Amino acid sequence: MKDTRIALVQMQAETGNVQGNLEKIAGFVAAAADKKVHFICFPELCITGYTNKKGLLKPEPVPGPSAEYLSELARRYQMVVMAGIPEASPVDRPFISQLAAFPDGKVGVYRKTHLGKSETAAFSPGDEIPVFTGETARFGIGICWDMHFPELCTMLALEGAEIIFAPHASPRVMGNRRESWLKYLTARAYDNGVYVAACNLVGSDGGDKEFCGGALVLDPRGNIVAESFSGKEDLLVADLDPDPVNNMRQKERKVMSDSLYLDFRRPELYHKLTERTGKA
Predict the structure, then answer these.
(1) Which of 1, 139, 234, 244 is the most exposed, having the fewest neighbouring CB atoms within 10 Å of its CB?
(2) Domain presence at residue 197
(3) Domains identified in the chain, total number
(4) Are 192 and 2 a contacting pair, CB within 8 Å?
(5) Residue 280 domain-assigned (yes or no)
């Protein structure tokens, strides 16, 4: 990992207003470029707005119009741009996808693998856990509910991720995001020796749903690097020091505190994890 500057966006996304949401995204990307950001992450389903009511969101293919729009932004401003869309799937339920557009024009995609109970009727789960390579760091993505599952982040870290971006669409009824995130996102960062960077939708969706916002960056020891819980749209910029990650991953560690816990796992003891169905 090299010196890395990231940006996280708290954004209000009006459901169904794709063009307006994309124009807003472009404005934030331009502002981030002025700050020489390497990666920018927007919230879950920010391009269409978030709803779990089946049939209200228009799925898009990848590649497709929104992917091409993000790709052009990434090329123009020379940064990785991550934003969420409902992606067309082989069945009538789309994926909740986070696109990752790169400066060379390529567009990667992560499809939410763990769906919340209220999402299963409207969306399909993804089945892959990709790790992407940017100019200064390797990264993975976990979308909202995904981040409650330790195995996902462990897989990303084992595959070389140094940053895990966590876009959310958490409504206000879910309560204080800071209080909640510091309980489990801290553990995801600390246990896996990675930076975790989360952001959330904020404000009204144009209908009856309100999102509480929030942006948070945690270092590989679970310390807060940067945060914003302003309750309004904003751009949070943070500089990530590569030393904590690199020191943990070097073969000859100078001190015990640089240990990467994943190196000391004993997978032969964990076989029951794959045998359980999740049912009591």
Answers:
(1) 234
(2) yes
(3) 1
(4) no
(5) no
Strands 210-212 and 95-101: unpaired
Q: Which of 208, 227, 237 shows the shortest CA–CA distance to 40?
A: 237
Per-residue pLDDT of the chain (280 residues; tens, 9 = 90+): 999 999 999 999 999 999 999 999 999 999 999 999 999 999 999 999 999 888 789 999 999 999 999 999 999 999 999 999 999 999 989 999 999 999 999 999 999 999 999 999 999 999 999 999 999 999 999 999 999 999 999 999 999 999 999 999 999 877 789 999 999 999 999 999 999 999 999 999 887 789 999 999 999 999 999 999 999 999 999 999 999 999 998 877 667 777 899 999 999 998 888 776 554 4
**Residue 118, Ramachandran bin (φ over 0: left; ψ between -120 and 50: alpha; else beta):** alpha
Question: In CATH, what number is assigned to the domain containing residue 135?
Answer: 3.60.110.10
CA 160 and chain centroid, separation: 16
Single pTM value for the model: 0.95
Among 95, 132, 91, 88, smallest CA distance to 111 is for: 95
Nearest 5°: the CA angle 24, 29, 30 is: 100
Q: Write the CA distances from 114 to 106, 146, 259, 261, integer angstroms.
A: 25, 5, 29, 25
Token pair recorded at residue 171: 């409504």
> Residue with structure tokens 């929104």?
66
In a 3-state reduction of DSSP, which class is residue 177?
Answer: helix
